[in-house]
Design a protein that fits this description.
With 306 residues, the chain is mainly α. It has helices at 2-44, 48-51, 66-72, 75-107, 114-126, 131-141, 159-170, 174-182, 187-198, 200-216, 219-224, 234-252, 256-265, 269-304.
């Protein structure tokens, strides 16, 4: 009887070992993941001159909001924020709608041209004309330069996203479309009322990809709308503010007046850089928790089915 009790205790200890070790490892990984984020937030709220010394951990050493004031005091920042929000929303909606429609068409076995069209579309992932031909196409041929539509038209379709959505649609039961077709539904109605609602997990995943890419984009602004301040995206404007802050600091090394101006502002490139990181990442961090459930499901099913 005593041996049985001892064996049960040993088994109970072994059963407890894994969850304890697992919890400790996950807590450690969570800390390693969160520390850079929290450290960036702490530096962004720290006094600029004091932040140059370094050594800031998870809490500001000398609290200050000067870095955020330097970013948000300009009315151009709010206009750029509106441009970035508008381009992100419009690009995401159009990309999802157009890409999913093509993915549905190429997933139909009765469509005789689905294989050659798929091959042509996939080739664009491996063969690209390059930066200069794309620049000439958008600026000279399409005349989209210095317009808001330069943010929208080139990003309305994604080959990679089409493949992900197409793979997901192929994994859906074919009987759903066949039964709807027997009831008299055409392809557009089948797509919009049956296939599209069932694709919500993968569409949410693709929407997150597109939204993050569009929100973080700044290079197209520099190429096509660099001379139009009212069309600046938020990322490009923040990049310009960071460059201005760094130039001011460099000038302070050789100018007493510039040094005094920098000290008075209480913001340095260190705090400005961290504040830019927080401002640019915050909208995505707010949206992501609402899409996380669909994101995991969509990635698994879209990558495995079919």
């Amino acid at each position: 009887m005593t041996q049985i009790i001892v064996k049960k205790r040993k088994k109970h200890r072994r059963d407890l070992a894994f969850p304890i070790v697992n919890t400790v490892v996950l807590l450690l990984l969570m800390f390693l993941t969160l520390y850079p984020v929290l450290n960036t937030v702490a530096i962004s709220f720290n006094d600029g001159i004091d932040a140059v010394r370094g050594g800031i951990g998870l809490w500001p050493r000398e609290f200050s909001v000067e870095a955020y004031k330097s970013l948000l005091s300009d009315k151009l920042t709010y206009n750029a924020f509106g441009i970035s929000v508008a381009r992100t929303v419009i690009t995401t909606v159009l990309n999802i709608f157009l890409t999913s429609m093509l993915a549905f068409a190429l997933s139909r076995k009765e469509y005789v041209l689905r294989k050659p069209i798929t091959l042509i579309v996939v080739l664009t992932m491996y063969v690209n004309a390059g930066l200069i031909p794309n620049f000439l196409l958008i600026q000279k041929t399409l005349n989209l330069s210095k317009t808001f539509w330069v943010y929208i038209v080139p990003t309305m379709f994604s080959c990679f996203n089409m493949i992900v959505i197409r793979t997901y649609i192929i994994g859906l039961p074919e009987a759903l479309a066949e039964s709807a077709r027997i009831d008299g539904a055409n392809d557009l109605r089948i797509f919009w009322q049956i296939i599209f609602p069932l694709c919500m997990p993968v569409l949410a995943t693709v929407a997150l990809f597109v939204a993050v890419g569009s929100w973080n984009q700044w290079f197209d602004t520099q190429l096509y709308n660099g001379s139009k301040k009212n069309l600046y995206s938020l990322q490009y404007l923040l990049k310009m503010k960071l460059a201005t802050s760094m130039n001011t600091t460099n000038a302070a090394n050789t100018s007493v007046d510039a040094l005094a101006a920098t000290s008075a502002s209480k913001s340095t490139p260190v705090t400005v850089r961290c504040a830019i990181t927080v401002v640019s990442a915050l909208p995505i961090l707010i949206v992501y928790p609402f899409l996380q459930r669909y994101f995991v499901t969509g990635m698994v099913l879209g990558g495995v089915k079919g």
